[in-house]
Structures are given as structure tokens and as C-alpha cells.
Amino acid sequence: MNRVTEQESNYNNIDQMSVLEVLQGINNEDKTVAYAVEKSLPQIEKLTSAVAERMKKGGRLFYIGAGTSGRLGVVDASECPPTYGVPFDWVVGIIAGGDTAIRKAVEFAEDDAIQAWKDLEEFNINEKDCLVGLAASGTTPYVIGGLNTARKHGVLTGCIVCNTGGPIAAESDFPVEVVVGPEFITGSTRMKSGTAQKLVLNMLSTTVMVQLGRVVGNKMVDMQLTNNKLVDRGTQMVADELNIGYDEAADLLTQHGSVRKAVEAGQHGVKS
Question: What are the residue boundaries of the structural domains of the chain, listed by start?
């Protein structure tokens, strides 16, 4: 395989650059990431469609990864319940080394090829579910081992990596390979590679939730109303959809607990 993520930066003497020159260099590199993702859209479509079909039948989506990749999976998974009102165990992010590793790196956790399946078994993963491995390098043993064993148990497998032809892609039914080129700081895959993975994760989980009916029009009608900002947003959604005043919309939202239920009640003339 060609380890593009480890290639020498296109920039030299970074330590001698001005603050602005460093910022401009990073920004110029970041501009290329969305185009790299665009080239991978056919792969992303195949993975997303397959995941959506499994989840329509009651399956769940799991992410596994180490370091930056693992953290990105945890972030994406944790944002699905408040954004789309889905149960917390529909989308699950697992990081090598456990939740402690979200804040503090756990040495050599990514090198354990057996631990990922043990972590997944705690959630009773089964043949209805989907597993997406996250690793910029495409070679992380923790992810390889998890995908390999999951596949043997009938779990649908995919990955989001930033090199082509690696062992993680080989263990995936639906690999997504986004090649972003050398990092601004040589080998610092939390930069462009991490950005690319975040973009693909946004696309994957958002599109799956659309397919599962969690978006109406362009609105998050099932979002959890967990703070004043979201309550205000939800109230405005109800008011706009039903063409009623803000206060009346607020009453409906309070009574019914979600934008979807409040709108349905308003459309059918249900007050409580």
C-alpha cells in the first residue's frame, strides 16, 4: 500500500514561518479536503445505502477507532440522539483504550487486535448491525481485528481511511478511501485526514437519519429539547409549519414534547 498519510509535508522550515504563514499554509491544505471527499462519493454512497438498509430492519451502527479517528467516531455517535431523537444505542462510538482515551491517550491501545471485538461484545453486536472502522492510516490493528471478527459474525463492515489498498479496507465490505495527500505537519493525521473523516461521518450519519425518516423537509423534527436555544428553535419550527403565533406554538411544544408531535397535534386540532 502507498502510505500517503506518512509522506513528507509539502512545506519546509515551518518552524521559521510567521504566524500568518503557518495559518495560510494550513488553510490552503484544508481547502483540498472537500475535493478529496468528493472523489470518494461513490464509495460513500454504497456504504451509506447499505447501513441505512440494515438500520431500517432494526440494526445499529457502530464505529471503532483509535486516537483522533476514535474520538471522531465517538463525537458523531454522541450527536445523533440530541439531533435526531434516536435512542443512545442506535449509533455507538468505541475508542481503543476506552472512554479514558477520549481525553488522554492510552499507550499501545491501538495495537491490540483482539480488544475491539471484546468491546463490541459488551453491546451484544450481531448480524443485524453495521461496523465502520475509522483509521487514517488504514492499518490500525485494533480496527483490523474488530472488522475481521465482525465480518465472521455476519456484521456489515465498512471503513473510512485515508490511504488506499490497506488491510482495513480489505476487511471492509464497503470501504471508503479518502486520500487527502501529505499533511501540513508531516504525519499529523489529526489535520487533513481527521477533517476528511469528520466530513464523511457527517454525511454518513446525516443521510442515514434522513433515510430513517428523522428529517421532515429540512428540519430536525425529533431533536431533543435540552436547552433554551433548542426550545426556541423548536417553537419557531412549529410556528412556521402551522402558521401560528409563537406563544401558541410554545404551548403545543410544551404539551407534546417534540416538534413532530406538536405539528401533528396542531394539524389535527389536538390541544393536549
Answer: 4-211, 228-267
DSSP 7-47: SPPS---GGGS-HHHHHHHHHHHHTTHHHHHHHTHHHHHHH
Task: Name the CATH topology of 4-211.
Answer: Rossmann fold (3.40.50)
> Which pTM does this prediction carry?
0.95
Write out pLDDT tens, residues 220-267: 999 999 999 999 999 999 999 999 999 999 999 999 999 999 999 999
| Residues with active-site annotation | 79, 110
Set of cell numbers at residue 249: 406554538
Residue 272: what pLDDT?
46
